[in-house]
Amino acid sequence: MQLQTDPVQAGFDPERLQRIDRHFAAYVDDGRLPGWQLLIARRGVVAHFSSHGKRDITTGAPIEDDTIFRIYSMTKPITSVAAMMLHEEGAFELTDPVSSLIPSFAEQRVYTGGPARAPQTRPATEPVRIWHLLTHTSGLTYGFNRLNPVDEIYRRTGYEFGTPDQDLAGVCDDYAAMPLLFEPGSSWNYGVSTDVLGRVVEVASGMGLDEFFRTRIFEPLGMTDTGFEVPPEDKDRLAALYLADSAGKATVPKNSPPTAAPRALSGGGGLVSTAHDYHRFTGMLLGGGALDGVRLLSDRTVRYMGRNHLPGGAHLDQIANGSFSEVANAGKGFGLGFAVVEDPVASHVISTPGELSWGGMASTAFWVDPAEELTVQFFTQLIPSGTHPIRSQLHQLVYQALVD
Predict the structure, then answer these.
(1) Collapsing DSSP states into helix, strand and coil, what is residue 76?
(2) Does the pLDDT of residue 256 top 70, yes or no?
(3) I need a surface site. Which of 65, 168, 180, 227 has the fewest CB within 10 A?
(4) Are 91 and 205 in contact, with CB atoms under 8 Å apart?
(5) Of the ranges 157-166, 199-208, 235-244, 364-373, which one carries the lowest mean pLDDT score?
(6) Distance from chain centroid for Cα 232
(7) Cβ distance 77 to 85 under 8 Å?
(8) Is residue 3 scored above 80 in pLDDT?
(9) What are the distances in angstroms from CA 40 to CA 25, 44, 74, 369, 373?
(10) pLDDT for res 325
(11) So what's the pLDDT on residue 262?
(12) Pairing assessment for the beta strands 332-334 and 294-295 based on DSSP bridges
């Protein structure tokens, strides 16, 4: 990818930008990462684009401009945008019960105690609403959280990282049959909420999630390499996936080639993408829902999504129940699909109020800073995402290079 503007004209000090590359090159040189790619854009145009290391350590293939990455939970903002597009069309209200579109959610129960083999539950007094799915306040969870017997119930049912071999409708019925961690709207927990939201998109639109993404988001924005699978002719462009060993080094290959779409299309973590494509998506968010004459959302809707929607205006560190998060929780609220910076001082990381962000399980990350007209994306392929402080360090290094 060619730079689209002189970094100086975009407000960056070129020598300070090189600090970022040198810092993360050391991650590759000492084995902490296999390779990485970074894209920084200002006012919608690329001001810095760099790569270092390998997309496959075994073959020695380098990270290239068109390398494809598993973006995992960076899928969630895309699914949230899809849902809000349908909301703008009047398909549902945010306060509608999910059961109005997925009937199996009509009789939810809340966990009250006991082991996973014999949980005690009571009927929920509040239905799971579409707003709860968008904000992770539904009471749904992930099996890999390993914090509560409900997490174990997910694992015992076959839902730890992947899903059984069935379609998304069947998967969501399974989720509905398991107890909620808490009364919907009373706490925050990272879980399968956005996967259920993907099913809401399917039912409300009458289209498969892959078709909706392709026809309503990817093709209009020119995101030609984003999808639930990698075509056979492009499989060599896919970066290899690695697990961190006990020393935090990227030495354990993980066989996870998304060369065929699964039956259950995960709106919470199923997409692959490229730096070019995700730049188009973040550019649309920075543009208030529009990019290059294509409008997906009203600017009012995007601003509304970027408000803190947590109950009582709480921050994540105040309301989250200790589950995994793709951001540091202090000083951040949660909007409709991504974390929202409210207090940079509380976060102890240089950032801007109103910044939108999230990341993926393989240590990918992005943020959109409307005040600075800045978008940043970082791609690599190392699980788990919290192995190294990549995201906080990236923040401090990007903002120290911005000098206008």
Answers:
(1) helix
(2) no
(3) 65
(4) yes
(5) 157-166
(6) 25
(7) no
(8) no
(9) 16, 9, 17, 11, 11
(10) 84
(11) 83
(12) unpaired
